[in-house]
Amino acid sequence: MDTKRCTGCSRCLPLESFPNAGKRGKEPTCFMCTNDARRLRTPLPAIKRDPALIRINNTFNLWHGPVSRTPLRIAA
Ligand SMILES: [Zn+2]
Fold first, then answer.
1. Of 8, 9, 59, 74, which has the fewest beta carbons less than 10 angstroms from its beta carbon?
2. How many CB atoms lie under 10 A from the CB of residue 18?
3. Angstrom distance (rounded) from CA 30 to CA 51
């Protein structure tokens, strides 16, 4: 079984773990490294707006009232 060292993770892997690169034979990085690079390039999808979550966040963030420049003076 032929193995090849990946340039990304420097593991010795069988040739089946490397994507084909047309006439050049095989890519220098394995499938796992290629997938990692693809995932890093792809932005995360936008989060869908959830009214219940917005209400919970507003309740939490405004529990003690809106933010004020003057410090809270609970003691004294
Ligand atoms: Zn790799």
1. 74
2. 19
3. 43
pLDDT tens digits along 42-59: 988 898 999 999 999 999
**Sequence spans of domains, the chain:** 3-41
Residue 38 pLDDT exceeds 70:
yes
Query: Residue 75: what pLDDT?
Result: 63
Rounded to the nearest whole angstrom, what is the distance from the C-alpha of residue 44 to the centroid of ligand 1? 23
Span from the CA of 34 to the centroid of ligand 1 (angstroms): 7
Which secondary-structure segment (H or E) carries 6?
none
- C-alpha of residue 1 to centroid of ligand 1, in Å: 18
Q: Distance, CA 22 to ligand 1 centroid (Å)?
A: 19
